[in-house]
């Protein structure tokens, strides 16, 4: 059974390396108390209606939950040992690259954005801000993605995203997406 706690324990060494200093992690983007994290609202094939990602770059496995107005959502990435990045990042200790964690969050944001239109657009993300990586993500992990819209317009959106593994915030970032013109 999956569990995500609203508390995190994040500490880091100072530049000298001799002192331990606690850095307070940001709280979760929203309360998960009433959300069934075992639910599966949409699967990867269902997401193809809204998201253009295919093959190895379709990173989001499920949408677990979303608000009726598509302003908040929870997704799930099942991190498998046969992912394309496992052999090389890193050979002795596979760690999911941070850029792929953020891309997974961007795919949830893309779904929430596109769900508001009758014809999906091609959203591309154009900015990453305030990115922070706090906990490793490895094969076998369930990476829960939280997404909360900050701004929405027909051609642009700004969202906060977080990744949660084993009750800890693994990453967080603010992303900006923009609708690109489809060429096909």
Low-confidence stretches: 5-21
State the end-to-end distance: 42 Å
The tally of structural domains comes to: 1
Characterize the overall form.
Answer: globular
The percent of residues in helical segments reads 10-25%
Q: Mind telling me the CATH class?
A: Alpha Beta
User: What structural class do you assign from the helix and strand content?
Assistant: mainly beta
Considering the protein shown, what is the CATH homologous superfamily?
A: Hotdog Thioesterase
Whole-number radius of gyration?
Answer: 17 Å
Number of DSSP strand runs: 9
SSE string, helices as H and strands as E: EEEHEEHEEEE
Could you tell me the mean pLDDT? 88
The strand order across the widest sheet is 3-4-5-7-8-9-6
- In terms of DSSP E residues, the strand content is 35-45%
CATH topology, by name, is: Thiol Ester Dehydrase, Chain A
- CATH architectural designation: Roll
Helix count, DSSP H or I runs of 4 or more residues: 2
Largest sheet: 7 strands, antiparallel
Features:
184 residues; mainly beta; Thiol Ester Dehydrase, Chain A; 7-stranded antiparallel sheet; two-stranded antiparallel sheet; 2 helices; globular
What does this structure look like?
The chain is mainly beta. The chain has one domain (22-180): Hotdog Thioesterase (Thiol Ester Dehydrase, Chain A, Roll). The chain contains two helices and nine strands. The strands form two sheets. It has a seven-stranded antiparallel β-sheet. The model is unreliable at 5-21 (pLDDT under 50).
Give a short summary of the structure.
It contains two helices and nine strands; from the N terminus they run βββαββαββββ. It is mainly beta and 184 residues long. The strands form two sheets. The protein has a seven-stranded antiparallel β-sheet. The protein has a two-stranded antiparallel ribbon with strand order 1-2.
